[in-house]
Amino acid sequence: KNALLKVNNLKKYFPVEEGLFSISSNPVKAVDDISFEIYEGETFGLVGESGCGKSTTGRTLMRLSDPTDGSIEFKDQNITSLPERKLRKLRKHMQMIFQDPFASLNPRHTVEKILEEPLIVHKIGTKKERKKMVREMLEVVGLNGDYAKRYPHQFSGGQRQRIGIARALILNPNLIVADEPVSALDVSIQSQILNLMKDLQKKFNLTYLFIAHDLSVVRHICDRVGVMYLGGLVEMSESDKVYENPKHPYTKALLSAVPIPNPEVKRERILLTGDVPSPANPPNGCVFHTRCYECMDICKVEKPKYQEVEPGHYVACHLFNEKEPTDK
Ligand code: SF4
Ligand code: MG
To answer: Which residues cross the membrane (predicted)?
Structure first.
């Protein structure tokens, strides 16, 4: 398998300025040392509660935001500190789809203008050719080409998300970062958009990073899934393995909230107590220990290593330490 994107020990900290004299306190560790690869043609899911750092990860690896530390490689090129001029070229190959398409579509522009803009920025085609490309792209995402003359408010939420997808696709990118693309849509519309994304993936050989806050949406679309908690990856594996054999206590709790279609399969609901701690002041040891129902003494003092416990299955939890026995 070819890695299209490689993220190594990525950190994104936000400085916090406080008080009258701007004494800076602890930075917010939005993303704290995560590593993963996304293979060409796959859909990699990044899942976790809001504030866990998944959106920041997406924005940082697209270089919409500068990483604090670590490295990002895209198509075998180190893009960690590319200057803005080169980034612009790169963005042709990596595009984003947002949760709220309405907020990301300029209400005063026609769909034609919205979709034509990236083509103009990248100096693609004549005006006539661009108009034709826009019409064709609208049809590719299942909309009428004549809709080019309309404004965003004239569309339903699902149609607007199709426009958002058309805008992301019009430059013919390799990687699409989709940040909760269906979270704001009705359940019935969600599956239409997910099916469209799957079809487009095949048609255009796309690679997806799919960000979501719950595991139910991710299962049907993702090949592999990474689970994030408080800025870190706690578990990562093929989707089926994560669903059928979750290992990290946090993943188990998240999964226990996902309804199972088969009523004969029973899964006990695990309710987590307590709030997610502040990323400016994360707990010592395992950052999940304040909410973990399996917490041991070692968890409060020692950060668990993120390690491969089965081929391709990574977990950060002392329950899976190779060397030490886990029952003491
Ligand atoms: Fe729970 Fe300890 Fe594992 Fe953290 S390391 S998830 S506290 S058992
Ligand atoms: Mg988010």
So the answer is: none
Q: What pLDDT band is residue 19 in, cutting at 50, 70 and 90?
A: low
Closest ligand, as measured to the CA of 50: 2
Pocket around ligand 1 at a 6 A CB cut-off: 248-249, 286, 288-289, 292, 294-296, 299, 304, 317-319
For the chain, the residue count is: 328
* Ligand 1 center–CA 215 separation, angstroms: 20
Prediction ipTM score: 0.97
Q: How far apart are CA 186 and CA 200, in angstroms?
A: 21
**pTM assigned to the model:** 0.93
pLDDT, residue 20, reads: 58
For 187-225, write each residue's pLDDT tens digit: 889 999 999 999 999 999 999 999 999 888 888 899 999
Q: Residue 242 sits in a domain of what CATH number? A: 3.40.50.300
User: What are the φ/ψ torsions at residue 101 (nearest 5 degrees)?
Assistant: -60, -30
Q: In terms of residue numbers, what domain contains 160?
A: 105-172
Residues 301 and 162 in one domain: no
Of all protein residues, the one whose alpha carbon is nearest to atom 6 of ligand 1 is: 317
Residue at which a domain ends, from 172, 198, 230: 172
